Amino acid sequence: MTTREFPPGFLWGAAAAAYQIEGAVDVDGRRPSIWDTFVRLPGAIVNGDDADVACDHYHRMPQDVALMRQLNLASYRFSTAWPRICPDGGPVNQAGLDFYRRLVDELLTAGITPWLTLYHWDLPQALEDAGGWTNRDTAYRFADYAVTVYDALGDRVDSWTTHNEPWCSSFMGYTSGGHAPGRQEGVAGIVAAHHLLLGHGLFVDEFRRRGGTQGDGKAVGITLNPTVADPFDPTRAADVDAARRLDGLHNRVFLDPLFRGRYAEDLALDTDGMLFEGRPWQDAVRDGDLELISAPLDFLGVNFYHGDVPAALPYDAEPGELLGSRIEHATRPRQSPYPGGGFVFPRTGRPTTDRDWEIDPDALTRLLIRLRDDYGVPPIYITENGAMADDVVEDGAIHDTARRDYIEQHLHAVLDAMDKGVDVRGYFVWSLMDNFEWSYGYAHRFGIVHVDYDTQVRTPKDSARWYAEMAVRNALCQ
Fold this sequence. Notes:
Layout: E1 3-5, E2 11-15, H1 18-21, H2 34-38, H3 50-53, H4 57-70, E3 75-79, H5 82-85, H6 94-109, E4 113-119, H7 125-129, H8 137-153, E5 159-164, H9 166-174, H10 188-209, E6 219-224, H11 237-260, H12 265-270, E7 275-276, E8 279-280, H13 289-293, E9 299-303, E10 310-312, E11 327-328, E12 341-344, H14 361-375, E13 380-384, E14 393-394, E15 397-398, H15 401-419, E16 424-430, E17 449-452, E18 457-460, H16 462-473, E19 475-477
Parallel strand pairs: 2-3, 2-16, 3-4, 4-5, 5-6, 6-9, 9-13, 13-16
Antiparallel strand pairs: 1-19, 7-8, 10-12, 11-12, 14-15, 17-18
Helix pairs in contact: 4-6, 8-10, 9-10, 10-11, 14-15
């Protein structure tokens, strides 16, 4: 048997998000978020009522923390719900804060480190009604909310994440319309992205002012979902350029301002002529913004599930002739900030998850090395990684071998990057339990713990037992 060990102190955890598990959407002063609205829009492919209960974590939190302890989790990555704490983006709702006080106390009592994310996509609907993330004021309202949470929990929570996957909040929310709030307004996605980054910078500044330093045991960062863009046909110039555009509008639109204090020149060229409310998106960038956004961070969270294989459109072949691949015309609204681009995946002969996402662990290794080499990023934590599977309950057990294999392969990919000198310090599996998967509702299961949504019974899957044992060993065994 071959053993690959992780360094001492490597952090093992699981992740979840408030809207996906809490339920109790109208309890104790919580008000609607953009997701409460979005899942009830005409044509929604999910049952909007499902998320009203989700995993009922709001009422079952102590039992869920006890389950985390049984699974040997050293850390739990969760998000606080903005519409629960500042229901309309303004005054503080103490009842909402009290829930997270109880959660943090429960985690610490169980010996589990809280890893707090301030924004996992649930913007108060009242703020969206005022323009949402395309309104600069939302960044300041975020900073107010974030400071409220820090002042309440900063004495017990050491690790703070501003945003989870701001690419989804901005481009899927304001460009493609595939996520809440469902707007299809082209370059508005970049305006939203800038304001998300501004909110991040404003909180980091306040975090430091309040003594949030590594010397005091505090850490602040952001979680991105960078991709690896491999051109569908590397010999075709148009595909190579499509990969460059995708890299610019998925990765560098966040990485460059965060770690270089600027936006890349080709971003302006690729969006030339695209206007939001009659003006170029660059008008959203004001003096001092980039200095705030690029303030040094203590860690970078990386969420990774698959890479992307972009092809320029129109392509010479019919879609069905592209090596038998399935084409996803993702983020292609009426006015797309991906001019002439598309996504092609998976490639013929590559294994996929049950969600048809290509399984390519080597892409994660390459991504981690690139982040180190090109951006000199701070220590990295894999804050989400996991696989959707069509789980089947057999005699009370869930034998999710494919999920376990996926996680194991990607942990080897992390070790491969660490062997090359990349500073990775922890891994959070997505997700702790099956939950409300955004636009897919209950149709997709990512959890290492099975949830019967009718009874709310939790059942650890085989992957959970394997993960718990591996976390104790701090090593992969083959």
